[in-house]
Design brief:
The complex is a heterodimer of chains A (307) and B (307).
Chain A lengths: L3 E12 L2 E7 L2 E3 L3 E5 L6 H8 L7 E6 L2 E2 L4 H4 L3 E4 L11 H12 L6 H9 L14 H13 L5 E5 L7 H18 L2 E6 L2 H7 L2 E6 L2 E7 H8 L2 E6 L2 H12 L4 E3 L4 E4 L6 H10 L4 E7 L3 H8 L7
Parallel strand pairs in A: 4-9, 4-10, 7-8, 8-9
Antiparallel strand pairs in A: 1-2, 1-3, 1-5, 5-6, 10-11, 12-14, 12-15, 13-14
Chain B lengths: L1 H42 L16 H54 L5 H31 L9 E4 H10 L2 H6 L3 E5 L6 E4 L1 H19 L3 E8 L3 E8 L6 H4 L21 H11 L3 E7 L3 E9 L3
Parallel strand pairs in B: 2-4
Antiparallel strand pairs in B: 1-3, 4-5, 5-7, 6-7
The chains are: A alpha/beta (307), B alpha+beta (307).
Chain lengths: 307, 307
Amino acid sequence: MSDIIIETKNLTKQYGEQKSVANLNIHVKKGRIYGLLGRNGAGKTTTMKMLLNLTQPTSGEVVIFGKNIQGNEKKILPRIGSLIEAPGFYPNLTGTENLSIFARLRGVSKRDAISSALEVVGLPYGDKKLFSQYSLGMKQRLAIALAIMHDPELLILDEPINGLDPIGIAEVRSFIRELCDARGKTILISSHILSEIALLVDDIGIIDHGVLLEEKSLAELEEKNSKYVHFIVSDMAQAARIIEQNFGTKNYTVEDDHSLRLYDVSLPVTALNRAFIENGLEVAEAHTCEDTLEDYFKRVTGGEGIA
Amino acid sequence: MILDVTLGIILCFALLFGISCMAKLIGVKRQLQDMTDALNDIEAGNGNRRILATGNELTVDISYKINEIVYHYEEQFSKLRVADETNRQFMTSLSHDVRTPLTTLIGYLDAVHRGVVTGQEREDYLEIARRRAYDLKGYIDVLFDWFKLNSSEFSLYIQRVELAELTRDILKDWIPIFEENHLVYEIEIPERPLYTKVDLDGYARIVNNLLQNVIAHSQATQIKIEMTQKEKEFEISITDNGIGIEKADLLHIFERLYKCDKGRSGKGSGLGLSIVRQMVEKMNGRITARSEPDKYTIFTIFFSSAN
């Protein structure tokens, strides 16, 4: 089985003159959480709608589970759980009744599917409260319960934390993480909040004006995010000793025989250089890396920033 | 005549019955085809695939049963995958954590060996190198503990023990270390015997690890070790007035490889507290941590009383 669960090939959606999504190539890997990050109107929802065949692409194709979505909807869609905008729940029925209608229509994977889905999102099973009386947060929770009720392999969630309070956000975040880590589900979520994405995802796709600017793992991005001075010197053991003896810090790590990272960026790099050279070491490289995630996103989005 | 009518009615019924049987059969055939597709996918290694069914289908029971079995197998696989991932991280972090202190140690010894330093400075370098070697040994001891604790061979001999005297015995060895580190200490242990069920070595290891943790990380000037008897259990608490632990970190400090210090200055293995918690739990006790940054940190262990 292929390790790529969702792949889009030059996916484009054009409304009149305007390209809402342009030549998008995203790759969502199995068992990972992929965050589609972009500002409002960047094309996140349109992309997700095309993935679910809710709207037809102008050109390009969507491949899910190794099959083109066009013509394979009936095989592919039951294996996906999705949350795109507000699902059509009946206002005059309770949450449980609403879910049981969907359960009868789509089928589920076990007898107590409805009650366990409600339990996950923290809504009571068999409650008398009508959907029309639900708060925004409860509606969102019910929508998430609907998305996970049939225990799908792939979840596509558009801004899942909308309308939730801070505790709700933390709960949703931790169960999404759990679905991925403990159950091996693949999850695609979108958000316009950088800090939220950074807490949850494994891979990030940054989308702006319908164009994918960057696709990277969070680990790669965090690497850019830490502050340190990187040295490449001829004798690592002596370099480590000199840093400790002359500069009084142990805040460094030795990467390999020739490279070292000094996390104490307040130390003057020139003085360190001089000390190394005076002790007969050759310094091949010394540079300071200090770029915060925010800075980085500002740069890739052309100065506008994300959130 | 009557016979004809009766025969006609029977024929009609038979026809209806036949048609409905046919419809059911076609339905079941379709469901079986879906199940075969899903099972082929599962056979190919996709443990997250589910067979969806609704309450009125003939195949519903067998579908749910298959789902349940696949779910449980996948759960086991997931645990193995998580363990595998942790081990991988562990090896990476291990090589980093050993490399940095070892490189520095070599740095000092090389400097002595090449005659870079002489006289008193040479002696100082040797002393630093000696201490580094001991630090490394300590680190490797922790590692060894951790591996042992997580192997199947690990066993504890839990017996009825008098804890007050035992704790005093353990603390006796720590008093010179407190003094050396300029820690003002306060010890409150009841005079009467307090019985509980623990493993002797294990208990000592727990107390030692917690105290070592205070000395290595807290930068405290005061430490208080207190033992109190509650209704059915004892509490042993270790309080320091050091830098404390941020709320966000507090949730994770007992997880393996978690280090509060994001600078990764190479201090500590990130295993000490994880070992402590595992040990406490293996002895049917529990441990909590409370803290307020720059004010205090309190670690409390609870064991049930065996008087």
